[in-house]
């Protein structure tokens, strides 16, 4: 994994975990959507501690003070980048976006389909914003083509994403118990709940049998687990089988397909990464504000 890609992932995670404050979208009367997606009645306290009340106005004042400038700055940054990217006809490599999203998913635990959709949409927007920003900031920086080729030859394998499977398991002491647990699954019982109740694998029992993401040949995954999982559909469990230290029921959460690149698909991206290393200080969308004549309530 390249240093610049790691940096990008860290920044993305920081951005997606910022508190999003909808201060400037509050209606003048009645209820309004609060910062956490909860309807708020402005005429009622937002919290009560004993006899002490926290008013809506006090709450919003705190949000404005602690997060207001940062939230507005982020909104301005995204609009500036969006407008300039359209003017410059910047096109984002969809495979690069898919690859970064796949990597981010491997850092997550089990997710519902609704959660997967929401995170994918959120990450897709943030990744496209970052890549467009990087392109805008580096478009006039010269990079030697030989340096690009050399960088590709050294790091090309690190750009590829290997097919990954996300697994949980329940390890049982014997076939009889495994059949009993399988019957409960057939009746609609929760896999994670049954893992906590029955599994003899102490390392995963408390986490509902969750194992994580694995690739082919991973030394931390038994071959029989991988082979069994490749025969399964997503969000299904296996028949009991012998594996490891007992009789196993395997659950396949997701399969993430492999994503690989040829040189011509990465050439511009690598050029941009190398150009970014020539920029000091760290990249910021504020460097582009003058291009769109930005004015805001916080002045200079």
TrEMBL record:
Q: Where are the transmembrane segments?
A: 6-26
Xref: Pfam families: Rotamase (PF00639)
Cross-referenced InterPro entries, in alphabetical order?
A: PPIase_dom_sf, PPIase_PpiC, PPIase_PpiC_CS, PrsA_foldase
Single GO MF annotation: peptidyl-prolyl cis-trans isomerase activity
Task: Write the record's keywords in alphabetical order, separated by commas.
Answer: Isomerase, Membrane, Rotamase, Signal, Transmembrane, Transmembrane helix
Q: Where is the PpiC domain?
A: 162-254
Enzyme Commission code(s) on record: 5.2.1.8
Q: Which reaction does it catalyse?
A: [protein]-peptidylproline (omega=180) = [protein]-peptidylproline (omega=0)
Membrane as a keyword? yes
Query: Is Isomerase among the key words of this record?
Result: yes
Q: Which PANTHER family match?
A: FOLDASE PROTEIN PRSA, PEPTIDYLPROLYL ISOMERASE
The protein depicted here goes by the name peptidylprolyl isomerase
What species is this protein from?
Radiobacillus deserti
Q: What is the lineage of its organism?
A: Bacteria, Bacillati, Bacillota, Bacilli, Bacillales
């Amino acid at each position: 994994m390249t240093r610049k890609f790691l940096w990008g992932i860290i920044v993305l995670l920081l951005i997606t975990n910022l508190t999003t404050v909808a201060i400037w979208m509050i209606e003048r009367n009645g209820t309004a959507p609060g910062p956490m997606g909860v309807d708020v009645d402005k005429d009622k306290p937002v919290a009560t501690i004993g006899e002490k009340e926290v008013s809506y106005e006090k709450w919003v004042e705190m949000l404005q003070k602690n997060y207001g400038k940062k939230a507005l700055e982020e909104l301005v940054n995204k609009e500036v980048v969006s407008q300039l990217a359209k003017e410059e006809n910047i096109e984002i490599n969809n495979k690069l976006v898919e690859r970064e999203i796949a990597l981010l998913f491997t850092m997550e635990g089990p997710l519902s389909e609704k959660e997967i959709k929401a995170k994918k949409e959120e990450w897709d927007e943030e990744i496209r914003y970052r890549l467009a920003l990087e392109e805008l900031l580096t478009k006039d920086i010269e990079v030697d083509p030989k340096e690009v080729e050399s960088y590709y030859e050294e790091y090309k394998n690190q750009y590829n994403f290997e097919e990954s499977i996300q697994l949980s398991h329940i390890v049982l002491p014997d076939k009889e118990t495994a059949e009993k647990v399988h019957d409960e699954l057939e009746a609609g019982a929760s896999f994670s709940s049954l893992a906590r109740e029955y599994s003899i694998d102490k390392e995963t029992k408390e986490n509902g049998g969750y194992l994580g993401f694995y690739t082919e040949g991973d030394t931390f995954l038994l071959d029989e687990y991988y082979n069994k999982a490749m025969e399964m559909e997503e969000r299904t469990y296996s028949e009991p089988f012998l594996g490891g230290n007992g009789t196993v029921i395997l659950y396949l959460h997701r399969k993430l397909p492999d994503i690989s690149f040829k040189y011509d698909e990465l050439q511009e991206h690598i050029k941009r990464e190398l150009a970014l290393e020539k920029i000091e200080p760290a990249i910021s969308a504020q460097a582009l504000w003058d291009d769109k004549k930005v004015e805001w309530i916080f002045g200079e």
